[in-house]
Design a protein that fits this description.
By secondary structure, the protein is mainly β. Helices cover 5% and strands 43% of the residues. The longest helix has 16 residues, at 3-18.
Amino acid sequence: MKIRASLAIAVLGLSAVLVGQPGVAAAAPVAPAFPDSFALPTGFRPEGIAIGRLPFAYLGSLADGSIYRANLLTGQGRIISQGPGTPSVGLKLDDRGRLFVAGGVAGDARVVDARTGAVLASYTLAAAPTFINDVVLTPDAAWFTDSQNAVLYGLPLGRHGRLPAADAVVRLPLTGDWQQVTGFNANGIARTPDGRALLVVQSATGFLFRVNPRTGVATRVDLGGALLTNGDGLLTIGRTLYVVQNQLNQVAVFHLNRAGSTGALVKTITDEDFDVPTTVAAFGRRLYLPNARFGIADPDNAEYSVNAVRR
């Protein structure tokens, strides 16, 4: 916990002691401070993070696919869904309390009840070699990236968000400006500000693409010459795009036009506690990023954390 969080807690405690003492007026209550960082279980190996309307973060484990829920007010949490033994990578939470989880090298996706941890549905998306990396939700589908193949996979959602049958997966090849290269390709995914298309970052090139979800045609986004080197998780809030650049330990912030076809770099967010952050979610005026710590020795026994920064 950083200094400002500790100071707020100290003030809260002092106020509680003073109230009721002779000659001391009752002070206005001090709101509890959200911690600026909190620990995850040893060896958890986080990658994806999702936050909904309530102050709870959900994180997936690369180690065994378990899902961890943390209270943003306290930093405390627990495993709510034991993993299948294969990775959980990117994940998103919908308004119905369902987590859509990308399965990495397993080539699958699953939907998990965020309250009970029960697996509601599982889908096979691709066969090896594959890496189902990230997911974004639209009103009518969940779209998943594959870092090893030039394809997006869609789960079409029915009336009232009804989940599709196991054989209803949509396979959308990426065409247009998209060219598959050596290394990690499609990674983070988000919606354009107008909601009509998808944004996909290609980690190996640092390019950002606008993808038509009906045709798969990808058009490179004009970022004024900026490259998204080591681009990973994406988040759009209004016309602001946040791009996590994992190995660079920073978040690039862009202002986009409504169509998401052009953007300008506004600022870069760094933090002394970043340790290869991978993905990002927001709550209030804060961004939350898990430290994946890629490249460390003995990752299965290492310590991991989530950091919060002002957006």
